[in-house]
Amino acid sequence: MKKSQRMLGALAAIVAVGTVGETASAATGEAMFADVPSGHWAYAAVEQLKQDGLVKGMQANRFDGNAIVTRYQMAQLVASALAHEQQASSADKKMLNKLSHEFDREIESLQNLAKRVDALEKHQKKTEDHFAVHGYFQQTVEAKNHAGGDTAKSRWWAKEFYLNAEANLPKIAGDWKIKTQFETKMGGDRFNEEHLMSGKNSTTNQIYANPYNGGHLYDELFKPNLAYLEGSLGKIQLWTRVGILQPWVQNGFVYAANLRGLMLEHWSKKYNWHAFGGVVDSGDGDLAVGAGAQYDNAAGDWKSEISQPWNDNVRAHENYYVVKTAETNWQPRLSRDGKTPLSEEDQQKILDNGGTGSDNAKGSLTDMFFANKRTKKTAYGIAYDRMYSKKFTYSLGAYRYTSAAYNREPLYIGAASFDYKLMPKVIFRGTYAQGNQHGTNSHSRGWLADLMWNCNPWMSAERAHAFGAYIGYHYLAPDSYIRCGYGDGIEKGQKGIELGMYYNFTRNIQYTLKYGFGKSLTYNYGNDRQRDKLYSGVFCYF
Q: 264 - beta bridge partners?
């Protein structure tokens, strides 16, 4: 027989031949075929082929000899037998030849179907090899108590959608891909009333968009979040990424921000290293630029202290105060000692560099975020990971960060982390990081200690009904990281105990619940340092 007919057996094994309907007794003489006369010779022929082991049956390894079938279903049985004709006897081969003529039209239809399926599979593989799209949607809610803030208790609902696309480039110098990610973010204090995080409220003029480097406001509707080339540099096995990318080193404690720059990595069986550098491409608020000058509405004057009561994620800065004297014509001006005002030139230099992080500044103390001030931030880092044994792995890292928060003086950070496997599914993780910016308001030593079961503390959504949980103590000192990837329970600038769990309802649908309770590290006014936060979310991947 033709080769294409032999291949038909594979198709017959894959496609479902369908349920053959209600059974009928052979003794009654009723038609075994639904669309051919009773007692058709082909039935007896296929029955013989079945006894000779060339026909496997209609479904679930059953022949259903007493079932009513159609000519098309019988053609599938014949096609399956044709695929095994090399083991047929001479008599069976003659029978198969006769059957192939009897069901010639149906077998030809199967052949055409097989060709179409084969073409579709080839097209799908070609498409997958060259282009792929995936992403995820998340619905989350944060409920927190921020004692001493503008709002002691608050709730924030958020809907976020991330669409990722990647495509292979022509193989000229190694395997290279281009990868992109587009994000859409909506948020609000009520479920299903979230607003797009962009533009202004026409009534309050509140800006919803998150300001980025240079005071730029991005529309959060399909905003390009990532866009980079990725591939290996020839035979030296140096994995390279260039563009807008996100380095993920040391489990994201020190650095978890987007970067407009370059990253180089080398991977081996026992160790790997990562080096990166460029301009940090993340929201100013996420990067904790600093505290601001506060206006006391009740007193109708400036507060003397620089503070940021609504957010604990505050960098160390020079200990500025706000004073008004005859020298300043009784206008507010910054002071380092709380008595002597800075010159207008020195003050302007500080404000241009964003040294106070004056989020809430008014009057002559210009708001740095929305006045195109020099908020450019750069980061460079290198990390070395080592698998010491099957139970113990560690990572060492060094980083350099410049921003307005330190008046352009670099923040150098050294960090170390390790994982120790206590049991097959239980891991203890420790992380310690220290920065070099020390001063009255600095918090330069940060650390984590987590006991994790079946998670890290992020868990893959690949396996249905998987469950993971963790408990740990987090000390997220803001001068010990560039942008910390933690903060769902214990937020950045806080310390305390955090608990979390994950459960996959099905493959690619995950529920997450986290809770943290502790204190602020940076808010030192009165006794309002208590913090607690509940974070809950559903994540759907595709």
A: 240, 275
- The answer to whether the beta carbons of residues 451 and 438 sit under 8 Å apart is no
Alpha-carbon Rg for the chain, nearest whole angstrom, is: 34
Q: What is the pTM of this model?
A: 0.70
CA of 130: how far to CAs of 101, 162, 231, in Å? 43, 21, 14
Query: What is the widest separation between alpha-carbon atoms in the chain?
Result: 118
CB-CB contact of 71 with 103 (8 Å): yes
Q: CA-CA distance, 197 to 202, in Å (whole number)?
A: 14
CB atoms within 10 A of CB 122: 10
Which pair of tokens denotes residue 401? 């960060």
Secondary structure class of 328 (helix, strand, coil): helix
Residue whose token pair is 């506060």: 294
Closest listed residue to residue 64, CA positions, set 72, 55, 75: 55
List phi, psi (to 5°) of 172: -100, -50
Give the C-alpha separation, 440 to 435, whole Å: 14
Can you tell me the distance from the alpha carbon of 296 to that of 305, in angstroms, rounded to the nearest whole number? Answer: 11
Q: Which amino acid is at 358?
A: S
d(CA 345, CA 108): 88
- Collect all residues with Cβ–Cβ distance below 8 Å to 135 and sequence separation of at least 6: 161, 162, 163, 164, 181, 541, 542
Sign for the CA dihedral angle at 191, 197, 198, 204 comes to positive
Both ends of the chain: CA-CA distance in Å? Answer: 44
Q: Kindly state the tokens that stand for 106.
A: 């149906």
Residue 27 is classified by DSSP as G
Mean pLDDT, 10 residues at a time, the chain of 542 residues:
42 37 36 57 73 63 54 73 75 77 74 72 62 93 78 84 91 80 91 77 52 65 90 80 93 93 91 94 69 66 62 71 81 78 78 47 39 71 94 96 78 96 94 87 91 89 94 95 93 95 96 95 77 96 94
